Amino acid sequence: MATVERADVASTDAAVAAAKAALPGWKAVSPGDRAALIRSLADTIEARHEELALLEARNAGKAIGDARGEIGMVIETFRYYAGAPERLLGDTIPVAGGQAFTVREPLGVVGLITPWNFPLTIASWKLAPALAAGNTIVLKPAELTPLTALRFAELTLEAGFPEGVVNVLVGPGRTCGQRLVEHPDVAKIAFTGSTEVGSSIAAGAAGTIKRVTLELGGKSANIVFADADLEAAAAAAPLAVFGNAGQDCCARSRILVERSAMEEFLGLLEQPVKSLKVGDPLDEATQMGPLISAAQREAVGSFLADDLEIAFRGSAPEGPGFWFAPTVVLPRSADARVMREEVFGPIAAVIPFDGEAEAIRLANDTIYGLSGSIWTRDGARALRVARAIETGVLSINANTSVRVTTPFGGFKQSGYGRELGPHATDAYTEVKTIFYATEG
Ligand code: NDP
What we know:
Blueprint: H1 9-28, H2 31-47, H3 49-60, H4 64-81, E1 92-95, E2 98-106, E3 109-113, H5 119-132, E4 136-140, H6 147-158, E5 166-168, H7 173-182, E6 186-192, H8 195-206, E7 211-215, E8 221-224, H9 230-242, E9 254-258, H10 262-274, H11 294-305, E10 309-313, E11 327-330, H12 337-340, E12 347-353, H13 355-364, E13 372-375, H14 379-388, E14 395-396, E15 415-416, E16 429-437
Parallel strand pairs: 3-4, 3-6, 4-5, 6-7, 8-9, 8-13, 9-12, 11-12, 13-14
Antiparallel strand pairs: 1-2, 2-16, 7-15, 10-11
Helix pairs in contact: 1-7, 2-4, 3-4, 4-5, 9-10
Bound molecules: NADPH dihydro-nicotinamide-adenine-dinucleotide phosphate.
């Protein structure tokens, strides 16, 4: 598709130096002007909506309809955080002998390390609040999907951003990413990716007491009680796990069904799974494309090598491409590997439970805590279960996870810190307390 120059440690240092040099100028831009530039960036991206969607669909192999939605979210994210520069509010606090108040200062140069599953969208969740708060950026996209990030860097200049405020670096995580993590001039790392790499980033950042936010893996539960609207739950379940070919940290890959409804639910689930349209990402009708790489297909396939009962599978094209048909499995116990590890591919495990307490126990029986759903017509139970589940984002009678306007992030080993929502700029600023003596 394209040839991209591979960055190394020296180019990482050069990108950090460029971001550091641009920092004083960017901090000095007035809040209103910074807001106007972010709005202009949103307009510039909007004018290239289709071009960017096509680039993302081709680079990541994702359905074009999904790619359009993702670029739409990028635009929405920049529009939302265009309001932030003028709302970085502080407190005034009563003290003796003068006035004390707080201000929010930018952190400095911020390193963003992002994955290949929602390339520009996940980058925008970090870029928009970080820029709004007055930081300069070095963004390292995943090597597999750098193209929209590179185009984005061009668009920032077109929108009027000064040179050096946004720097995009395409190189391997273990060299360029690691250098960003260790670099003394980088104040913070915002990372989305695997729990394993997230853990190594947290350890590496400790050396320079770098701020870190981590959005990591998930093994989210979709809990279906027998009193739920089973048809609605079954109709919504496939795309909640097979969307983006299952390569989604919020994938509801454990479907917990109250035992008395198990047979009916599986019956209702079969048709929507079998009729899922898997195919050419650029075909308008496609709902699910191939997996990102040969390695990912092998990793996903390894889950089926275990002694697993397959309930039913959808279809996938033959021939070139890392195709994997959507698959529903029935693990014998909650200890099966498919119930414990993040698959990051189109495999859903359905398992029965008996009663509310067991549903909660099974949902929480994981190292992760990112997302999840509860389906029931009993409102009080929905709220009880929602409060009992150790997860960052939950929906009741729906499978939504991410909104620009609400906080997103994980409990437990799904990470720490929250992105999006009204408070995302907190993660890109330091609080400074100033006391002004008025006596003596
Ligand atoms: P990684 O966590 O390896 O990659 C995410 C990002 O981190 C990429 O930009 C990668 O760079 C970079 N990176 C890799 N190693 C380091 C390092 N030592 N220091 C700094 N940065 C680094 O995810 P993978 O792409 O390998 O996917 C593996 C699994 O991770 C998936 O199967 C899935 O389970 C999970 N995952 C979860 C995601 C989520 O949204 N929570 C997203 C992606 C993956 P590069 O790839 O260019 O080398």
